[in-house]
Each structure stands twice: as structure tokens, then as C-alpha cells.
Amino acid sequence: MRRLSAGLAVRARAAGQRVFRSLAIRNYRLYFAGHAISVAGTWMQRVAQDWLVLDLSDSAVALGISTSLQFLPTLLFGLWGGVLVDRFDRRRMIMLTQTASALLAAALAAIVLTGSVRLWMVYALALGLGLVTVLDTPARHAFVTDLVGPEDYINAQSLNSTVHNVGRLVGPAIAGLLIAAVDVGVAFAVNALSFAGVLLGLARMDTAALRRLPPVARARGQAREGLRYVWHRPELCACLVLVAVVALLGQNFRVVFPLLARDTFGGGAEVYGWLTSALGVGAVIGALGSAARQSVMAWSLLRWTWVFAGVCAVAAFTPWLAAALAVIVGLGVANIVFNTLARTLLQIGVEPAMQGRVIALHSLISLGSTPIGGPITGLVCQRWGPGAGLLLAAVSVGAAAAAVTPMLRRARAASA
């Protein structure tokens, strides 16, 4: 019995070392700590903004439009954002984008707390944040390769997902309490202050230890070059098809969950916070599980696509809040494992000089599809209820998984 216990303890320590190995690198540790502070504020703002729009408009379509405006610039300019990420210093770029995000959050806090807020103002600031996202998202994801070596890409991406989803767990719960107890504008103010964490971490880094790649020289056709690069690699192509459908119709939680909280469960902002936090709990579990992985394959991504579709179908027909929270934890696991595997697959299988453009293409598809998918899901929910939005996700994602299966089989046969 003692030997068994000792063996289990050794295995647990080894697993812990695998899961958190990237934190041994000082620069990554600084980025991780700063990001942990900032991301909780970001999730507070997302919940507060959604609730503010619903309060100002009482419209599911308006909720979809506000979400869409935040991601429309990525749809229009995302690929060119990746070109700039490949050309310029990523650390400095992130410092600029995070500063801009803080200023936009402070502006939203000011107009809400002074009582001068109008729906069009929220739309305008959401669009401004979307313009910042064009550079911020590919820069942050590609920056991981500056912080750690290739052997730790999966681990670092998974730990980033973990901290992102701990923020998803903590931020919405705090936002719900602040909205109910104080004012929705306070959540925006706290988010503005939270950006100090990531900016301080970036400023304190040892720049000599960063694994910077030589900047890509300016040339014509670099955006098209990124598209051609992915087109001729079937696994990358299949990955992006799955990401496109999941992002377009599967991940519109910010449209579905406020309506689910209000219309299905008869609650307010606090219930919306619970639903979002449940998604975050599952995401943390899924991200920590992914962090122990040492390899990623396209077939693993396909399996988790089917899991995501199945859990969405179950959630669509769950009528009780307690049961729905449990199902949404499972949805969070499936969602984050899918996203982590997709991002890692796109980084591991890509030449270093193409990382910014390929990650930007991923961002264009995953974030840029929201301006289209958000209103579609909003219309479906307004016509048939929030459960129909989840069912739409299940059917569309399952169809995408079935469609790419022959493509992956052909790629495996060609490889063999």
C-alpha cells in the first residue's frame, strides 16, 4: 500500500511539473501574472457591456449587433493585422494595444457613471475595441513563441487558456455583484485599472532573453501568401474550417446566455454571471488537462468538435438552472480544449516566418465571424428562444465535423 501511495505521489508531482513547466521561464511568468490580472477585468467588461446593451435596448438583435461591432474590424482587416505582427516587435505592439484598450474602458466607465450613456456610444466604443483587437489578438498569441521554446508551445498556450478562463470564472461573478450592488459603470472602471498588470509585466521583461525572430521584410502580396500557405496544407485547412463554423454559430454565448438567464430561468445579471462562470469552470478544467499534452493531432481536434456539438445539444433541452450549470461546465471543457488544440495545431505546424499571418487568419475566422454569427443567433433566439440558439450550434458544428472527416482521411492516406 505504501509503495502504491509513493508511486501515485511521484506520478502526481511529475504531472504537475508537466502542466506548469512554462512558468519556470521568468519572462513567461511575468506575462502570465500580468495577463491573469487583466483578463479578469476583461471578462467583467464583457458581462457588463452585454447587460448594459440589453438594459438600454431590451433587444436580442441589439445584443448581437454590439458583439458584432467588436469583432467586425477583425473580419475586415484581420489578415493585414497578422502581416504587421510578423513585421514589428510583438512586445511593444502588445503594450500599445493594451494601453488603447485601457483608455476605451475608461471612456465607457465615464459615460455610464455620469449618466450620459446612449446605445450608439456603446456601439462606437465596441467598434473602437474591435480595431485594437485586429493587432492585439494575433500579437498576444504569436508572442508565446517569443517567450518559450517549441517544446513548450502546447503547455504555454494551455496555461494562457487556463488563466483566460479563470478570468472568465471570476470576472463575470464579480461583474454580476457590482452591477446588482453598485453600478454597471464600476465594472468598466475596474477593467480599465486591470490593464496595469499586463503592462507592468511586459515592461519588466528581460528583452535579451526573448526568442525574437528576424522581422519579415515588407513586400507585396504577403497577406495572399498566408492564404496560399494554409490552402496547400490539408490539416491546417480542415482545422480552420472547423474553427470557422464553431466561431460562426457555436460560440455565441454572449448572445445566448443573457437571454437564457432572463427568459428561461427568470433571473437577472447574477444568473448571467453564474452561467458565464460555469463555462469558465469547465474551461479551466479543460485547459489544465490540455497543458499536460505533449502532442497535438488533427484527429484529436475532430473528436473534440463532436463532443462540443453533443454538449450543445444537451444544453439546448435542459430546463432547470442547476442542471444547466452542470451541462455548461461540460460545454466549457469541450470549448476550451477545441480552441487550445486548434491554436496549437496552427502554431506547431507552421514555419516561424508565417506565424503572425496564420494566427491572424485564425483570429479573422474565429473573431471576425462574430459580426455575422451574432445577429443570426440573436434572430434565432428572438424567434424560438435561447434553446434554439444552442441547438443551432449543435447541428452546424456536427455538420462541419462530418464535412472535414473525408479531407483528413485523404491527408492521412497521402502521408502514409
Automatic annotation (TrEMBL):
It is a multi-pass membrane protein. The keyword Glycoprotein does not apply. Pfam families: MFS_3. GO terms for cellular component: plasma membrane. The lineage of its organism: Bacteria, Bacillati, Actinomycetota, Actinomycetes, Streptosporangiales. Its main location: membrane. Keywords: Cell membrane, Membrane, Transmembrane, Transmembrane helix, Transport. It comes from the Bacteria. The chain crosses the membrane at residues 30-48, 60-81, 93-113, 173-202, 230-251, 271-289, 301-318, 324-346, 358-376, 388-408. It is found in: Cell membrane. The keyword Cell membrane applies. This is MFS transporter.
